[in-house]
Amino acid sequence: MRILVVEDDDTIARRIERALAASGYIVERASDGEEAWFKGDTEDYDAIILDLGLPRMDGLQVLKRWREGGCHCPVLILTARGSWKERVEGMDAGADDYLPKPFQIEELKARLRALLRRSAGHSQPVLEVGPVTVDTRQMLVSVDGIAVDLSPLEYRLISYLVHNKGRVVSQHELTEHIYAQDFERDSNAIEVLVARVRKKLGADVIKTRRGFGYIVPEDRPDDAGEPERAKDH
Ligand code: CA
Q: Ligand 1: distance of its center to the CA of 6 in Å?
């Protein structure tokens, strides 16, 4: 998951960056409103954390311009404590959630997880696909209830695909959302990574759509609950 953190205060920004990176997110930062607007407008993020008090263009203006430009990325705004007016304006401008400053980093992480789930159409913190469960709070993946040991990169891959369950995700998109730096990116690396994750979670969990990318299907075709067609005819 690729997150943009927009915050002009270096101390707060670094605190957020460290905490999110430790939770397996790819974090990018913008420290003024214009840089933030440009990044949000041109790059593809899974969520954006946006401080409202920013130099060069205030956060509210940035948010309005993103929305006008067709950016639907989930946005969590950081507001001044007690400023109900700022919160109302922020929500009206298209924010999906808000957090008053100062905040506990754990609350920020919980709100971000909820935002990412909701934007992917899930209401629970534990996502399930067939025998595979992804616990987004603990970054834990299990198969048939048994925890599987995954590297941070393997976790990012399966977590991204499960959040986007039922949709074909291209290699390019995967690369953008699970690797931190450009130099790490290599499409062969994705194939190798997918093969490794299949080995650990089962060959059927991630399907290849040749020429298009990868998909974690909504329902596994060999699910026990699959109706037997022969019965009715
Ligand atoms: Ca600020």
A: 9
Sign of the dihedral through C-alpha 103, 107, 112, 114: negative
Q: How many CB atoms lie within 10 A of CB 149?
A: 8
CA 10 to ligand 1 centroid distance, Å: 9
Tell whether the model's pLDDT for residue 182 goes beyond 70: no
Rounded to the nearest angstrom, the distance between the alpha carbon of 193 and the centre of ligand 1 is 39
CA of 137 to the centre of ligand 1 (A): 28
**Helix or strand or coil: residue 129?**
strand
Answer yes or no: pTM beyond 0.85.
no
Alpha carbon of 114 to ligand 1 centroid (Å): 24
Query: Residue 184: pLDDT band by 50, 70, 90 thresholds?
Result: low
Please list the helix, strand and coil fractions of the chain in percent, rounded to the nearest 5, in that order: 40, 20, 35
- DSSP character string of 143-164: ETTEEE---HHHHHHHHHHHHT
Q: How many CB atoms lie within 10 A of CB 180?
A: 15
Pairing of the two strands 140-143 and 132-135: antiparallel
